[in-house]
Amino acid sequence: MIENGQKISLEYTVFLEDGTQVDTNVGDVPLVFVLGAHQVFPALETALLGLKIGETKQVTLKPDEAYGPIVQDAFREVALEMIPAAYRQEGAVLGLQDPAGGVYPIRVHQIKEQKAVLDFNHPLAGKALRFNVKVLDAD
């Protein structure tokens, strides 16, 4: 049985409440992390405690256990000309590069006459997530 402090290898598929698949690593590189080190969602770690190698489990995380609620202060209005023409439509996703070189997705929430409302929330904020997991290995 796996316990905190063990390095585990995990296969997963993530779904939204409506069954839409949003991520998977099945058939690809396993997710490897130390259980209890808060490298993944704490609620997911708790659900994995006690599983055995080869065991599968379905875990549903509420929005506050995953990417959190939608934060209204994360919406910003900018001049429409600040948005590249190809992205001037609701639902378009822009990539903003951070100083470390990572890319952060920003969604165009609304287009007004001369303004665009951008949503800086994580794309999965406010959503419950269902994880189908399989423990592949544990050290």
Q: Key features?
A:
mainly beta, elongated, 4-stranded antiparallel sheet, 139 residues
What can you tell me about this protein's structure?
With about 140 residues, this protein is mainly beta. It is about 5% helix and about 40% strand. The chain contains one helix and nine strands; from the N terminus they run E-E-E-H-E-E-E-E-E-E. The protein has one helix at about 40-50, and strands at about 5-15, 20-25, 30-35, 55-60, 75-80, 95, 105-110, 115-120, 130-139. The strands form two sheets. Strands 1, 2, 3, 4 and 9 form a five-stranded antiparallel β-sheet that branches. Strands 5-8-7-6 form a four-stranded antiparallel β-sheet, with no helix packed on it. A hairpin with a 4-residue loop joins strand 1 (about 5-15) and strand 2. It starts with 6 loop residues before the first strand and ends with a strand.
Strand content: 35-45%
> What's the total helix number?
1
Task: Please write the string of helix (H) and strand (E) elements.
Answer: EEEHEEEEEE
- Ends: how far apart? 11 Å
Largest β-sheet summary: 5 strands, antiparallel
| Residue windows where pLDDT falls under 50 for at least 5 positions | none
Radius of gyration: 18 Å
Total DSSP E strands: 9
Note the overall shape: elongated
* pLDDT averaged over residues: 95
Quickly give the structural class.
mainly beta
Helix content: under 10%
